[in-house]
Every structure is written in structure tokens, then in C-alpha cells.
Design the sequence.
């Protein structure tokens, strides 16, 4: 299939033409990748079972892993769900438009293909003005998972989308680099207590500020074992994963630097190509084939922004093993470490102080 590219960052006329074309494609049942403030999404008509099937096929994604339905205005929520609990109204007032997805009981309007066979549906009203303009141009809600091949890190730049889906979908909209860099926070509002299913830029502290106490799906921080059943089906897959083996290294900063350099030297002696994911504070202290700086330790939003591109860059540099600094789990750091844990399969090396 030939993929059309549309530019959203050029002239106004060019943007409008690209959006109009993309809207037509979505209405006709085709697939369009587009920027959102979190990551690029792979969009299709959320009310069409056939479009959902196409999305699963293009991504190579299991069809029991439901899609997020994107809307452009709060009023568009009503026909998609059986009820709007008070908690949803409060969260929408606080964080929509924005990087927050709510799980609600789905209405008949949403095909089971879109919701992966579940009787609930994930809904998000994105902040990115290009994303909302696309939904308006389509005239239908837009189902969109992240626009990556299943199992690869989510795309934060248009070239990542082209790498994974070029030739497999109808159109790719180029809106430049995304703002957040990690997928939206997912909150399940179908139980008695709101539950965090996936951490993101809307932090637990922010959610609790609006809702009071929330629950945490146990899969968020622990390695997945066969007896655990994540409520977000997508959380069961080894996601965000680079091709190399990856290890997280924690401890005091001096000890972490020593440990990573020692491991890197051993791996190199073994003939392996070594990558290191470093904080800006420590990056100069490392020696390896690829040392990529994620940002300052004290700025988790910066690390969130750079993480997925860095994981892809490690693939491009064909490293065999990656050692990554572990970061604090406060604020957006929880989302950062959730993705890094998945990328590393929860493999940790603990750096010991020298006696
Ligand atoms: O930031 C984002 O959320 C991006 C952009 C494009 O909006 N989208 C995204 O979609 O990350 P995706 O498909 O890569 O991740 C959606 C996650 C999956 O883990 C899926 O299992 C979960 O949401 N999910 C979707 N519907 C659900 C439902 N009804 N109940 C529980 N989890 C659900
Ligand atoms: Mg995804």
C-alpha cells in the first residue's frame, strides 16, 4: 500500500488540506496515524468493526487488546457510554483535554472489536490541537492505539511511525515531536473505587487531588506472574521493549556509575556492543559504544519525553545489552519507571557502596 504523508507544521493551507484528506480517509474506513500530546496514534473510525480489525492487523496486535476512543469535545462522550459517573465528570473538568484516559461502561454504539471484546470502553479527549482537528474532520470518534508495531516502543516522532507502519496504512500526519512522550494515564471508573491501570503524565497525586483515594493495579510496579490479571489487557505484554537485553541499575549515584562501567567493560570483553541510558548529571562518567542522555534526574518530564526515542536509537545502533540508570518513582517518575521496568523485563542490578 502506498502511504500518503501530510504535513501539519507547514503552511495553514497545507495543514487544512492534510486534515481534510485524513478526515475523508477515516470516514471511508481507512487508517491515519496522527500526533497527540502523548505519543503518535494509529487512528480508525471507532464505530466501525472493520476499521478496528485493520488497526490490529497493521500493528500486529492481538485483537483482545482494546483500543482507546478519542473524542474532540466532552459532549461526544455521552453516546459512547452507558453512564457518566460523577468521578468522570470531575476528572474531565480537571484534566480534559489532556493525557488522561477513562474506562467506562460502553454503549451499543461501540463495536466489540474496538473494545477488544470487553463491555467497557477507554475514552480520551486529547489536548493536541492537531489531534482534535483530525477528530472533527473525521466527524466520528477515532479509535487509536499507539502508532507502533506491537511490542516496539511507542512513537514520539513521525519517523518512528514511518519506520513501523510506512506502506501498511493510508496516511501519516506529521505534527513534529510530541510534548509528553509517554502514553496517557489510564483510570478505570467501572469499579467501586477508581483504579490506576497505567501511569502517565497525570500523576497519582493529581488524580487523588480530585477523587480522593484511588487503587493501584498490582501489575504497575511488580513483574507480571501467571496468576496476575492486569485490568488493562495491554499491560500484560512485554511492551516498549528494545531488541537488546536491558538492565536497570539502582543505588547511590557514585555506586551506580561504578557498577554500570564495570558491567559495560565485562560485556565489551565478551564481544558485546554496549548501550547506556544515562542521566545528564552522570552521562560524562560512562564509557560504552552508545551513551544516550535521557535528561536531568530531577526532571522526570524530560526523561519521559526522551525515553522511547532513546530505546529506538539503541535498536538502530544494534547494541546487544543496555544498562540504564533507575530513576526515582515520584510524580511522573512512576510512569517513567513503569515503562523502563517493562523494557527491562524488571531486571535489576543493585549497585553496592564500596566499603
Ligand atoms: O496516550 C495514549 O493513550 C495513546 C494515544 C494515541 O492516545 N494511545 C495508546 O493506546 O497508548 P494503546 O492502545 O497503545 O494503549 C491502550 C491501553 C492498552 O493497555 C489497553 O489494554 C488499555 O489501554 N485499554 C483499552 N481499553 C480498555 C478497557 N476497556 N479496559 C481496560 N483497559 C483498556
Ligand atoms: Mg501501545
Sequence:
Amino acid at each position: 500500500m502506498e502511504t500518503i504523508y501530510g504535513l501539519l507544521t507547514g503552511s495553514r493551507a497545507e495543514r487544512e488540506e492534510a486534515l481534510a484528506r485524513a478526515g475523508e480517509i477515516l470516514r471511508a474506513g481507512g487508517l491515519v496515524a496522527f500526533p497527540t500530546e502523548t505519543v503518535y496514534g494509529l487512528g480508525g473510525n471507532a464505530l466501525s468493526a472493520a476499521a478496528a480489525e485493520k488497526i490490529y492487523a497493521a500493528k500486529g496486535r492481538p485483537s483482545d487488546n482494546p483500543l482507546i476512543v478519542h473524542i474532540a469535545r466532552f459532549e461526544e462522550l455521552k453516546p459512547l457510554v452507558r453512564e457518566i459517573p460523577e468521578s468522570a465528570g470531575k476528572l474531565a473538568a480537571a484534566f480534559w483535554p489532556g493525557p488522561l484516559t477513562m474506562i467506562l461502561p460502553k454503549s451499543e454504539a461501540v463495536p466489540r472489536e474496538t473494545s477488544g471484546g470487553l463491555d467497557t470502553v477507554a475514552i480520551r479527549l486529547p489536548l493536541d490541537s492537531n489531534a482534535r482537528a483530525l477528530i472533527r474532520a473525521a466527524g466520528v470518534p477515532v479509535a487509536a492505539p499507539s502508532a507502533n508495531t506491537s511490542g516496539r516502543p511507542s512513537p514520539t516522532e513521525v519517523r518512528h511511525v514511518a519506520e513501523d507502519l510506512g506502506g501498511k496504512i493510508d496516511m501519516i500526519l506529521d505534527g513534529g515531536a510530541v510534548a509528553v512522550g509517554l502514553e496517557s494515564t489510564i483510570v478505570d471508573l467501572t469499579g467501586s473505587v477508581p483504579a490506576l491501570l497505567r501511569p502517565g503524565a497525570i500523576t497519582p497525586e493529581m488524580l487523588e487531588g480530585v477523587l480522593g483515594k484511588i487503587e493501584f493495579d498490582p501489575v504497575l510496579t511488580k513483574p507480571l506472574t501467571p496468576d496476575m490479571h492486569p485490568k488493562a489487557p495491554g499491560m500484560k505484554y512485554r511492551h516498549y521493549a528494545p531488541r537488546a537485553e536491558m538492565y536497570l541499575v539502582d543505588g547511590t549515584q557514585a555506586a551506580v556509575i561504578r557498577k554500570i562501567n564495570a558491567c559495560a567493560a565485562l560485556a565489551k570483553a565478551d564481544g558485546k556492543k554496549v548501550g547506556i541510558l544515562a542521566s545528564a548529571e552522570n552521562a560524562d562518567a560512562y564509557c560504552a559504544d552508545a551513551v544516550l542522555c535521557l535528561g536531568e534526574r530531577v526532571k522526570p518530564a524530560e526523561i519521559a519525553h526522551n525515553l522511547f526515542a532513546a530505546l529506538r536509537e539503541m535498536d538502530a545502533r544494534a547494541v546487544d545489552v543496555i544498562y540504564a540508570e533507575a530513576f526515582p518513582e515520584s510524580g511522573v517518575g512512576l510512569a517513567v519507571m513503569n515503562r523502563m521496568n517493562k523494557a527491562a523485563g524488571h531486571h535489576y542490578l543493585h549497585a553496592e557502596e564500596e566499603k
